[in-house]
Amino acid sequence: MNRLSVVIPALNEVDNLEAVIGSVPVAELAAAGWETEIVVVDNASTDGTGDEARRLGARVVEQPNRGYGNAYMAGFAEVSGDVVITGDADQTYPLDHAVALVNHLIANNLDFITCNRLGRENRDAMKPSHTVGNKVLSAISRVLFGNPIQDSQSGMWVFRRDVWATLDVRSSGMQFSQEIKNEAYASGARCGEVAIEYRPRGGEVKLNAWKDGLRNLWQLFEHRFRVNRAPRLALEAARTLEIIEIDSWAASAASPVAS
């Protein structure tokens, strides 16, 4: 049986955890040949997030250094799955469709999938200012890195664990989302993007649109022009990013997952 790790970074999300952890389709994944571990990264919460995650059966990784990227790096260092799937602890990402997403990865022989939240059907789930910011950053990212990823800021990815060891991802904060995508593309990994449903957030919004947006913008240029990046970026013309388009985020939920 293959093994899947679901990694969920969490900062003061005690009220959302039951719904988020409960949405992972463990039984459906098992039927498709996947043993699932749920890893919650407690990013120095003060509301008992870690204790609640343990009560709900998740494995908890403690990361006292706050930051979105810090949380993910701590979580990825501890996972045991052949494949990793990510999602925030605020109920926005459809972890309940893990089978369909893993199926896309395996069936299309991909190494890394990122998920696009910016379809019109999701427009009510995100603040207009956040939507505009995401689209602007995504456009700049496409120009700088030469890839066609439509949603560079999405926090839901599915990837083979061995790919992570090949990436040079340094961001400790929200910039991690765009950096891991651009790194996956530049590394020559077989990449894809799928449309997903994006849901209204449960609880307090922690994103600071202007501050985080400016930090992300700076990181894009820093990443693109790293001295030690030049040899790999020179190969961009020979690489192809395979975009997998689906009409519905659940289109293949009933398809068998290869094992």
TrEMBL record:
- What Pfam families does the record point to? Glycos_transf_2
- CDD domains in the record: DPM_DPG-synthase_like
Q: What is the lineage of its organism?
A: Bacteria, Bacillati, Actinomycetota, Actinomycetes, Propionibacteriales
Family as reported in the entry's similarity comment: Belongs to the glycosyltransferase 2 family.
Q: What is this protein called?
A: Glycosyltransferase 2-like domain-containing protein
InterPro entries linked to this entry? Glyco_trans_2-like, Glycosyltransferase_2, Nucleotide-diphossugar_trans
Q: Which domain of life is it from?
A: Bacteria
Matching PANTHER family = RFBJ PROTEIN, UNDECAPRENYL-PHOSPHATE 4-DEOXY-4-FORMAMIDO-L-ARABINOSE TRANSFERASE-RELATED
Q: Which residues form the Glycosyltransferase 2-like domain?
A: 5-163
